Amino acid sequence: MKGVLLVNLGSPDSPEPKDVKKYLGEFLMDERVIDVPLWARTLLVKGIILNTRPKASAAAYKKIWWKEGSPLIVLSERLQDKIQDQVDLPVSLAMRYGSMTIKKGLQELVDKGVDEVFLIPLYPQFAMATTETILVLAEEIRKAHFPNISIQDLKSFYNNTNYINVLSNSIEKYLESKDYEHLLFSYHGVPERHIRKRDITKSHCKIDGSCCVTASPAHEFCYRHQCLEVTRLVAEKLNLKEGSFSTSFQSRLGFDPWLQPYTDRTIERLGKQGIKKMAIVTPAFVSDCLETLEEIAMEGEEIFHEMGGKDFTTVPCLNDDKEFVDLLSSWITDWAKTETVTA
Ligand SMILES: C=CC1=C(C)c2cc3[nH]c(cc4nc(cc5[nH]c(cc1n2)c(C)c5CCC(=O)O)C(CCC(=O)O)=C4C)c(C)c3C=C
Ligand SMILES: [Fe+2]
Ligand SMILES: [Fe+2]
Fold it and tell me: CB 3.0–4.6 Å: which of 1, 63, 84, 314 could bond 297 by disulfide?
């Protein structure tokens, strides 16, 4: 029997510093998130970050936490429920980090008789810190605990025409009644090193003005290319004028070079340039979360106002948008029609 496992990033159990510390410990000790040798990662995470960051992160989580729990979890659950209403096979939800583990998600499906799983990482673009870490862990868990099931995964869908249409429609609908001079596409950042490491050609990614727009097999795993493509395709679909939109990368951590331009500096620059009304969209996130609700909608707005900006509009993520639910459900239904694969 076939079933679906949706997987998102995860959140702490509560916005209290002890839960945030536990969650960040698991997240940042992942070798695909902080990709340095174990001794250096341990020193950095356990020796420095976990002694300083949880208090500040917990304060940020408290600002965005809902009565029902973490926005990211609640919104992912709403998405799961709406997809479940549309498809005939069991749909479970898991998180890469935290209590809603991939093992529990697979167990839930197996308990319902599932032996063929369609794994859907809830990220439009591939990154080793997101999609790859989910796929690797799911395979480890499968081998160790569920050797008789098979897992197939949904490939990154950043340039799928239907996805681009759904994203563009949601942006257009939200901004319909709003006036804005500039639309910023802000994606979660990653260290530049992550991009070079996943360059399968070992020579394409220069992280410059041309590599990501020059066709290459490297693009299948190039997060930067995939983000720039989403911006390009949405801008084309929405007929945005050259100069009225741009791309930036947010949430950098540590001192290594991350993908640029940085979102906070871009917002600052737009304000300084005299832009009074800006809108911002965050297509690396399927569900609204700390990074969109706090870092963008609160901190980003504050920076813009400090620089003289007036109207700052944050477009919600796709969350449980009807067209997005329909699209994921159609991919699931198509997959369910494919031939059975043996483990
Ligand atoms: C080295 C650190 C990090 C990398 C690389 C990274 C990549 C990455 N993350 C997301 C999506 C999310 N990240 C979120 C929070 C978050 N991310 C990092 C660090 C890295 N992320 C930290 C330390 C945190 C925690 C919050 C904080 O202390 O600032 C979230 C929000 C989770 C929530 O509970 O709401 C998401 C979602 C992507 C897509 C990505 C690479 C492409
Ligand atoms: Fe992150
Ligand atoms: Fe590139």
Answer: 314
